[in-house]
Amino acid sequence: MTKLDWTGRRFEVSVDAVAHGGHCVARHEGRVLFVRHTLPGERVLVEVTDDRGGSFCRADAVSVLSAAPQRVAAPCPYAVPGGCGGCDWQHVAEAAQRELKATVLAEQLHRLAGVDWDVEVEPLAGGPLHWRTRTRLAVNATGQAGFRAHRSHRVVPVADCLIAAPGTVDAVASRTWAPGGELEVALDADAHTHVVEHRRVPGHRHPATSVVAGRERVTERAVRREWTVAATGFWQAHPDAADVYAEVVADWAGLSLGDVAWDLYSGVGLFAAVLAEQVGPLGTVLAVESATAATADARANLADLPQVRVVTGRVEQSLSGAADPRAVILDPPRKGAGRRVVEAIAARHPASVVYVACDPAALARDVATFADHGYRLTALRAFDAFPMTHHTEALAHLTRAP
Description:
Elements: E1 10-19, E2 23-28, E3 31-36, E4 43-50, E5 56-66, H1 94-113, E6 121-123, E7 134-139, E8 145-148, E9 155-157, H2 169-172, E10 182-187, E11 193-199, E12 208-213, E13 217-222, E14 225-230, H3 241-253, E15 260-264, H4 270-279, E16 284-289, H5 292-301, E17 308-312, E18 327-330, H6 339-346, E19 352-357, H7 360-372, E20 375-384, E21 393-400
Parallel strand pairs: 3-5, 6-20, 15-16, 15-18, 16-17, 18-19
Antiparallel strand pairs: 1-2, 1-4, 2-3, 4-5, 7-8, 7-10, 8-9, 10-11, 11-12, 13-14, 19-21, 20-21
């Protein structure tokens, strides 16, 4: 039997609802299409870009026949079909981007967790452009830096990036780099640019890494503290995100002096610092993180807070023997915490769980698992920390049912 493959085919479709992942849903001859560069309610000409022969395929809207009122001209010349894959919603008015993200988060909570919630995605300060202070670029075969096309290894060279802060992409785009390598660029709290190059070395599994501008370790500021962290390590890309999230965590944790708290997937210890302030010197904060470099940074940056105990290890393997917490801060990677971790937390009966999520589907799955163990969603705040992309950050407050 011949495998069905529409790759390269073009046809007109009417666009339905937005879907998780930066695209909208359309249908053609009984198959589902996930279409980028479009909006719900539009009539567009699509070109199929990826077809594995199943019940769905992927496509780009290459011509808009009937535009939605929220459509605007994309400010970036690379945000086009076949162009840079980094931004999903450059063709959408700013407020409408947040509405799309709210729709996706609400739909995931309804479908995966059985929770109906009126979601609002809040903007962060600064607007939709020039916000990203940390970025990673790829280098093509001729030494030009750029970003990869959507779902592709192909590098799209760029002269600049409109969502990147000045001093990041513009600082490296005009140079020629080692072909096939990657660049990590960070703009720190003092507006200093730091560039780390990863060069491919023939015959070696790992690239050679060198600092070509600035320093390997950089200064950041959040929660009234100064942090020294790796230029290539994790720090929030939006300059307002760390303080905003920490404020919500502090509000919902509800800790008192002498309490016990857990900060799981703790990174360099941002939330642990907030919890330590609430529990005081007689309390305890257990911070667990699997990345060795991050825990080393946490120990150094929180050395003045002896109530914080930093553990390097996998969360599900590091909780045995720990005192039962009153509050747990859970900030897992994109895939979510998963059933094993959620059940380990629920078994200790914390009064409050604050879940920090960068993926709505993962959040909804874990909310459902918490519900199986007597926890309900009592508050939710979502932030547009990644304007022009489909990504959002959501903080969920889960409390134990009486």
